[in-house]
Known about the structure:
12% of the residues lie in helices and 36% in strands. The protein has 779 residues and is mainly beta. The strands form 14 sheets. Strands 7, 8, 11, 12, 13, 42, 43, 44, 45 and 48 form a ten-stranded antiparallel sheet that branches. Strands 14, 20, 21, 40 and 41 form a five-stranded mixed sheet that branches. Strands 15-16-17-18-19 form a five-stranded antiparallel sheet, with no helix packed on it.
Amino acid sequence: MGVSSSLFSSISGLNTMGEAMSVLGDNVANVNTIAFKSSRASFQDVLSQSVSTAAGSAQVGRGVTLATVDGLFAQGSFESSSTPTDMAIGGQGFFMLRAGDNAEANMFSRAGQFRFDQEGNLVNPTGSFVQGWTLETTTGERQGTIGDIQIGKSTPPTPTERIEVITNVDARVANETNETRLFDAWDARNAASVNPSPPITSSNYEYTTAIKVFDSKGASHDITVYFDRTSKDNQWEFLVTVNPQEDMRAFTEEQKDIYPPYERYNYEDPRQKGAGSLLYGTIDYSTSGAIDAINAWNVPPDGRVEPAQLTNRITLDTAESYYSFPVNFTGDTVNSPIQINFGARYTGLQSGQNQILVSDLGAFANSGTSSYITKETLMTSVYDQNGNALAVGDTFSFAGYDNLGAAVGPWTYTVTGTDKVSDFLNALGGQFSCTATVDSLGRLKLTDLSAGVSSGFYVSSFTNVAASGADPFGSQINITTSKQQILSPGRALATAGMTPPVINADSGWDAVYASSGAGPVVGGNTFTFAGTTSDNVPVPATAYTAVAGGTVQDLLTWLESTFGANAQIDGAGRLVLTDRTSTSSDHPGVLAISGITYGGGAPAIFGAAATPFSTIPGDSSEDGSRQGTMVSSVFEAEALSSTQYANSSTTIFQDQNGFASGFLQSVSVDTDGIITGAYSNGQVLQRAQVALATFNNLDGLFKEGGNIYTQTTKSGAPITGAPGTNGLGSIAPNALEQSNVDIGSEFVRLITTQRGFQANSKIITTVDEMLTDLINIKR
């Protein structure tokens, strides 16, 4: 009957209230558990039974049952922590963990009590591995897939690849008058003398600054930069150096041939004056003191930079921003470049440099050689260094080529009684399509009107006939070089038309003709050379045979091997051999070719047979001459830049990106979950990033204990990502999430649950009394 069924309904109530009390007890017990998420018991009635009433059929409930125990994933409060690896999640998401016996992450937690174990792995208190990404230390980019977070206790050395040297040079320093270039002043051999001395003395520079760099082994080295005024307004030169005893740069194959038995720079070699000298250059400043242009050259072992030549000039690619220089401190087989930034970035725009030719000697305006000529000097008042004067009827004869390689002359100028030097210069400039002037030392100076690469502008012959024997300008007008050069008497053209274009090193033999139009060169043609190598070794008549399909470069390579000199084709199409060593008392210029013999029907592409090559003697002095080319000298000042102001020279800022080896001293975590390590060598590196995961159905997660959840089919697969992405929360470093249990709410639920339990108990006692009364009907 209905009375007895109410007993069972109340019993279900007692059972359900007991379960609810268990949930409440669990919540209250975990009120101080880190990142604990409280639960809530939900009830539902049990299937009702049908009963008959006066009104018809009706339903009577049969009690209550526990419907669900829901997890409440509301955000907990944050507790500050002094441990840098303590983390809290602000928002949605779980930390991903991997148990030691599992291959993949299979656990999820909101508790961020993490530490590093003895192997550098980030783990939770039970030793499970925290999951995330390894970061590339220089770019911060994530590498690979999600895995264990491991931060090494040390970091390997990082060799220096870039230095910044920002200085102010004193604008009040006067221009040099008797200029000695810094590369000439530097002498590494001083360190190898019986009484060692510095490679450069303080009288040779105005200012110096040094910066410490690191090699691949973590050893430190001082890079010293010297600055000095030049003779040009608003221009300073610089020399980047290292202690010559630490300079172990590896030689190129050509340098090995020049400086045997050495295979790398060595200050003890008497020939290697330039050891320790890494880069030479000039900085041009605007009148307002900002950088306008920077030019740079490599410094060869002999220290002869030769700014007039293109041999050592550095040309930047459009993608490059700064000059660099090679270093080698460890004896590696390959040199390493270091970029140097003076606070100005290359614009990527090249500018043309005009070719300039200068005469050997300068002329004087009187017999006492006390003053040099000017454009206004009468030609009959032009004297040579011996006091001999020009006279009416004396002649100057010229031959050569203009910028495009077109032949000029032979052309003769005859002195008259009324001509000034300016008349002579105008006539000369008109013949060669150049600007002809005299410099401050009375020398002829011919400047090509067209700037750029491979200028054909040369004076191949220059003679004067004077009744007095006067020789005011010398016998050559050329580009100065410290290394002796020899030049073919003729030149080769690329067509049979007897006019330019001229050949170059890449020209195929089928496009090589003599200036007479004869040719082209065909396979089997022979060119027989005889002469003397740069080391004074006679070269007997030795033949080179052209091969069909070959190029001029094949001949140049053969000549370099045969004569021990560099071989090239100049802008006029002439064959030029250059000594590999500067002319000096220890190395006199003896390189020579006595003539060429053409065989097998070969055209006379480099001049008449058996005609000796002309010689440009080696001369280490500078006269203002230079080769024409395209130079990467246009720079744009950056926000922090070197300057030339009227203040004392000083270093404003310097920096470099190398480091010695270091040991981990501390770590920090940011809101993106990026773990950064600070090392004893000063490096601060981003090493890893914590990964987070969330689920479509959080209530479907299974509690494993220990603040751990695992996924189930109900929760769905984890949705992973970096903090702050995919709807995931951010990381609060140095903090832990507290339990989200609300004691006040729990106590209210405790009261209501208790009252519910009491009420159900009361139903049972009441029904018991009713049943007693029923039994007592029969006495």
